[in-house]
Amino acid sequence: MEPRIQYAQTADGVSIAFYTLGEGVPLVYLPDLPLSHIQLVWQIPEYRRWFERLAEKRMLVHYDGRGWGLSERDVTDYSLDLLVLDLEAVVDRLGLERFALWGSLQVGPVAIAYAARNPERVSHLILWSTYARASDFYSSPRLRALRELLQKDWELYTETMGHVLMGFSEGEPAHQAAELYRESVTREMLRATVDAFREFDVTDFLPQVRAPTLVLHRRQFRLLDVNVARQLASRIPDARLVLQQGDTSSPWFGETDALLAAIDEFLGEGEEAAAGAEAPEAGAFRTVLFTDVEGSTSLTQRLGDARAREVLRTHERIVREALRAHGGSEVKTMGDGFMASFSSATKALECAIAMQRAFAEHNESAEEPIRVRVGLNAGEPIAEEADLFGTAVIVAARIAAKAEGGEVLASDVVRQLVAGKGFLFSDRGDVVLRGFEDPVRLYEVRWRENG
């Protein structure tokens, strides 16, 4: 049965068409621009089987980007930040607090930017035949030739692109893709989209991606060299690279079964461990702590991937030692940061102070100092599958982002919980946190022996 099309409204007033399919943990599938028409795609058997198969073990969320398919066509701006608004509109309309994210081809940079900016919401990131820097794609001689063809002959351009994307050995599938092109977008809109996409560069976001990441690519894809995929995976902390044989960028053709198996394994990883772990009590009051290594992006650029990874492993060791010593529960690690929870606000603050003192001691003799931001908040997060969600968690993450390296910032809730326990606080005033209208009172926790 064909999914029911619904609409979400972006913050700048654009209507975005989407549907959901299946049940379970959400996988949000960014539009496969330039083939984005969620209703017509469903009429093509190969495409439909792909999406049905993805939805067998989870809830698939699929949408058309602004200017494409069934979404509002009367738009002229396709900047990266506005495409992020499309994604935000859909997940907020569905009330999704945490989800896996799929980004492919030209919208891969959108997925990367969103995952880096919203680590508390993205559980897994899957990147298919994509890049961080648009010049790695658009500088291809084939792309330059196709761009000239776009200016001169719309029908020939779409037929050619159908073969480029589906594979040059494909006949009818390539023709179907060309027809889908023409139904998805006008030539004028495609020109405007390409002009915007050519400016995308999210290279600086790569080391900030904290979600487990799977980079997928086909070795013989003619428009994007396999080395781009290797570089992409090397720049994202602990990313996994899976290469397939084939020349099509369309996941629903070629070694689809092997591709789906890799996706299922990746998204299902940790489920057994999570099932065996002690789940946080539903509705329990917890103090949530986030750490974040300051300047992790420049760290990687300066030291290289291998040396930067050694520095981050030192961060992980110090944080885990402090958590064990103070009764903290590691909820998850995110490459250059941790999320942890405590049943006691006192223990959480003692742990944060112990961490900063340990980092300060390490930095006295270290060739490469580690400066870590720490943020704390308390409340009743939602406990699900050994993870924590909700406003209390998001606020804690936002507070950590406001800290400087070497600082511990806490909400007023935490300060009040430890009143009379001997902690020293410095009032930082009311601060507006991203995504929240009402300001939050923040306090710096003084941890230095002489301070």
CATH fold-level name of the largest domain: Rossmann fold
Strand content: 15-25%
CATH superfamily of the largest domain: Alpha/Beta hydrolase fold, catalytic domain
What is the rounded distance between the termini?
66 Å
Largest sheet report: 8 strands, mixed
CATH class of the largest domain: Alpha Beta
What topology, given as strand order, has the largest sheet?
A: 1-2-4-3-5-6-7-8
Q: How many domains make up the coordinates?
A: 2
What is the element layout, followed by pairings?
Blueprint: E1 6-9, E2 15-21, E3 26-29, H1 38-41, H2 45-54, E4 59-63, H3 80-94, E5 99-104, H4 108-117, E6 122-128, H5 135-138, H6 141-152, H7 154-166, H8 172-184, H9 187-197, E7 213-218, H10 226-235, E8 240-244, H11 256-268, H12 271-276, E9 286-293, H13 296-303, H14 305-325, E10 329-333, E11 337-342, H15 345-365, E12 372-379, E13 382-384, E14 387-389, H16 391-402, E15 408-411, H17 412-417, E16 424-431, E17 440-446
Parallel strand pairs: 3-4, 3-5, 5-6, 6-7, 7-8, 12-15
Antiparallel strand pairs: 1-2, 2-4, 9-11, 9-12, 10-11, 13-14, 15-17, 16-17
Helix pairs in contact: 3-4, 6-7, 7-8, 13-14, 14-15
